[in-house]
Each structure stands twice: as C-alpha cells, then as structure tokens.
Design brief:
Elements: H1 3-11, H2 14-19, H3 30-40, H4 44-47, H5 49-57, H6 61-85, H7 92-99, H8 102-131, H9 139-156, H10 158-188, H11 202-205, H12 213-218, H13 221-228, H14 233-236, H15 244-253, H16 255-273, H17 285-293, H18 298-330, H19 348-358, H20 360-367, H21 372-376, H22 380-404, H23 419-437, H24 443-465
Helix pairs in contact: 3-10, 3-15, 6-13, 6-15, 6-16, 6-22, 6-23, 7-8, 7-22, 8-9, 8-18, 8-19, 8-20, 8-22, 8-24, 9-10, 9-18, 9-19, 9-20, 10-16, 10-18, 18-19, 22-23
Length: 474
C-alpha cells in the first residue's frame, strides 16, 4: 500500500476500502477462504514428515504438535489483529514496513517470496516423484507439466486459484477424517487385522509417552513447525477477499480445532492402532497404518493425497509470489514492472517471473532426479519462520502505537497480547536453537546469513539510488 492509501485508511474514508485491494479483484469468498486456511495447515509435513518425527519422539510427538499448534494460534491471532487494522495483500511485509522499518519490510517481502519459490520447487519435485508410483515417466516431464498448468490457472483469475485450493484442501481434509473414523472403528468395533492389538494404552505402553526422553521431543520441533508453514497464507488473501472483515477472523478462529483434529486427533488415533515403533523416516504414517490394518489400497490412496498436497502448495506459491513482488514494487522496493495487473486482476509479470524460477526444479529433476528434493528443501523452514517473527514483532509494535494514539485500535484484538506474542517469539527462538543442534537441519542456518548479506547489499544500493523508496511514509 502506498503512503497515500495509508493516509486514506487512517482518515476512515470510503476510498480506503476500495484502495485496500490495490487494484485486485475481490474474488475469494468465505467458502474458499475457509478451505485455504484449513489447507494451509495440512501438507506433506503431516502426510510424510510425521513418520520421521514419530521415530524420533514416539507418542510425545502429540504433545509437540499441541504446544506448537498453540503457538501457531498466537501467531495467527496476531496476524488477524493486524489484518483487521489494515487488510492488504502485502500483509506481513506491509506491517513490517510500517511498524518495524522499511528495511524489515524489504527483507520480509523478498524472503517470503523466496520461501514460496523454494517451496514451489520442492513441492513440484515431490509431485513429480509421486507420479512415478503409477507411471514410469521421467520426473522432469511431470514437473514441467504441473508448473505450466498451475501457472496458467493462476493467470486466469483469483477465483480459479481459490477453487483449486478449495478442492485440494477438501481432498486432504477428507483423507484425514477418513483415517480418524477408520481408526475409531477399529478401537470400538474391532474390525481389520489391527483390532487384536489396537488400544489407547499403546500411547504409553511401548516405552512410555516419552520413549526418547524430553530431548527427543524437543528435537522434533523443527519438523513440527515445518508442517505448519503456509498457515499464514490466509493473510496474503486479504486484498482479494470479498468481505475480509468477516471471512478472515472466522478463518483464523478455526485454527485451534483444525490443529486439534487434523494433527493431534489424527496422531492419537494412528498411534493407538499402530505402535510407534513401526514408523520410520521416509514412510508416511498413513501408509504404515493402512498396511497394519490390512488395507493394501491405502498406499495408492495416500499417494494421491500427498500428490494433491504438493500441488496445493505449489499452487499457493504461484499465487503468493506474484502478490509479494507487486507489493514490493508498489513500495519502490522492487522493479516497477511487477506492478502490472491483467484485466482479471492478476499480477502477470511477478507470477511469470516466479514460475520461471520454479522451472529450475524441472532442470534439477532432469539432471539429478534422485537428489532433487534434498537440494532445495533446507532453506524453506528458516525463511518461512521469518514471516512469523515479523508478524509477531509488528503486532507488538502496533499495540504500542495504539497505546500512544498513533494508530486506530483493531476490531479483532489478539487475546493475551502482547504477552502471547512474546511467548511465541521465545518458542520460535528455541526451535532455531534446536535446528542449530540438529546436524540434519543445520544447513538451513548456513543459508540464512548469505541471503541476509545479499538483501543488505541490495537495500543499500536501493537506498543510495532513491532514498524515498527506502522509507515508509505515513
């Protein structure tokens, strides 16, 4: 949002309402926003990553997801408070620019853009891998086809993006609810091959609730937090929601039950049917559970679900990268060419530029299909958590501005803030420390200083060429 639009907002004029979309079409309805919010919290981190986490922590992973889920709720309520103060498509990059400083907005916008480009490469690579389950075709062909199809869908209209996300999310939700119901049936009625041993007591009888100790549980936190990445995507939709003042608070308030059902509930059911010792890294806990139940079709079902989860994530990447580049350009912190919109209100140049970079994933799948996934996944967690940090810091600064009388009070105040925001920041700090201790996750922290250096130099160049573009003006 430009400084003129900010002034309009604080004046309370009707023009602010129309300007807040920054030229976008408000094509996302309540049904789509709700499913985007639900789908954002359910991805390959649950369907695949949970297997590795269970092997590291045992049943105590349930507690890790519950505590991390509470922190995610604090983050989303902080974001919700900011969104109701000023619903814009730039979202947390805009808030960082206003309440922390121009450089913070610059770093947040470009880092979140990179996060989705990297995630898009990762997910299109994963999707290509899943396709080999049914057809023996080169991975790069599938990766190219998926990239082109999703790029085309994002250019047509924001409504089509919303529809795709609605159905992608519906598939994921249906799969998890189906698994919960099957497990509940085994525990109560006693059908399938797993009925003889299935019991809630397996949550503590196989070496205790903390079989690897508290340390083992703490070491899974980076895996747990990775599973929740993209939950903040609902904030990027603010500028294109039909009624953001109504739909966004409703979507954010569903976070607790989403996490309770899809993560905590699903894990309780699965670990009550299948002993945690049967899970291993690289194998979906859903596949392992289906096999234990004697349902051979389970592997094909789960493969289809994780395929849609990967495509959903890549679709979200196509959507958010174009919007983030346009927000940077509107504020003079990115090339002006990214400000252009099509007649349907989509940022063509920004989306095309991001999609072109995602095609790097196609090349990686061509030259090294066996190692493609591990080449690009390491940076996603730390860059995604930076957005969460900026949301929390911005909300703390916003509260201080309200107290001074420099900003109007939000209609959707975060309960317990700013103390809940400080708690969430400390928790994220602990996760980053755990990442430093874990040799497998440490590579993420090696990449961060290099990216920070590149952004620092770029900002100094921007500031020297045009100081006005390196300042946020009310």
């Amino acid at each position: 949002m430009t400084s003129v639009q900010v002034d309009q907002h604080h004046d309370g004029s009707e023009a602010a309402e129309s300007a807040s979309g920054e030229g976008y079409q408000r094509g996302l309805g309540a049904r789509q926003i709700q499913m985007i919010a639900i789908g954002g919290a359910i991805g390959t981190g649950l369907f695949l990553g949970a297997g590795k986490a269970i092997s590291k922590a045992g049943p105590s992973l349930i507690l890790a997801y519950a505590v991390a889920g509470l922190v995610i709720f604090f983050i989303m309520r902080a974001l919700g408070e900011l969104l109701m103060y000023r619903p814009v498509s730039g979202s947390f990059a805009e808030y960082a620019r206003e309440f922390v400083g121009p450089f913070a907005g610059f770093v947040t916008g470009w880092t979140y853009w990179l996060f989705w480009v990297v995630t898009g490469i990762t997910e299109v690579t994963a999707a290509a891998t899943y396709m080999t389950y049914w057809w023996d075709i080169p991975q790069w062909i599938s990766a190219l086809a998926f990239t082109v199809i999703l790029f085309g869908a994002n250019l047509i209209s924001v409504k089509l993006f919303g529809e795709l996300e609605f159905w992608f999310s519906m598939i994921k939700v249906t799969a998890i609810i189906g698994m919960i119901l099957i497990c509940a049936g085994i525990l109560t009625i006693g059908f399938s091959d797993a009925a003889d041993t299935a019991s809630m007591t397996m949550l503590w009888s196989e070496g205790g609730f903390f079989p690897k100790g508290i340390g083992g549980t703490l070491m899974t936190l980076q895996i747990v937090m990775f599973a929740f990445l993209a939950v903040e995507l609902v904030g990027v939709t603010a500028g294109e929601s039909k009624d953001p003042k109504v739909t966004l608070p409703k979507a954010i308030n569903t976070v607790p039950w989403r996490i309770a059902v899809f993560y905590v509930g699903a894990l309780i059911m699965i670990l009550s049917v299948v002993p945690w010792t049967h899970f291993q890294p690289g194998v979906s806990p859903f596949v392992a559970a289906f096999e234990k139940m004697g349902l051979g079709v389970g592997a094909a079902i789960v493969n289809f679900v994780v395929l849609t989860a990967a495509l959903s994530s890549c679709n979200s990447g196509m959507y958010s990268t174009g919007r983030m580049l346009r927000d940077l350009a509107l504020n003079g912190q990115g090339p002006k060419i990214f400000t252009r919109l099509t007649k349907s209100g989509t940022p063509l140049i920004g989306t095309a530029f991001s999609a072109a970079l995602m095609l790097v994933g196609v090349w990686i799948n061509y030259v090294a299909p066996g190692k493609a996934f591990e080449y690009v996944v390491s940076f996603a967690t730390i860059s995604g958590m930076w957005a969460w940090i900026m949301i929390l810091v911005s909300q703390i600064r916003y509260r201080a501005a309200v107290k001074r009388g420099d900003a109007p009070e939000s209609e959707f105040k975060a309960p317990g803030a700013p103390f809940t925001s400080w708690f969430a920041l400390l928790f994220i700090g602990m996760v980053i420390v755990m990442m430093g201790i874990d040799e497998g996750a440490r590579v993420s922290l090696y990449c961060a200083p290099l990216w920070a250096l590149l952004l620092g130099v770029s900002y100094l160049v921007l500031k020297s060429r045009n100081p006005e573009n390196a300042a946020f003006k009310r």
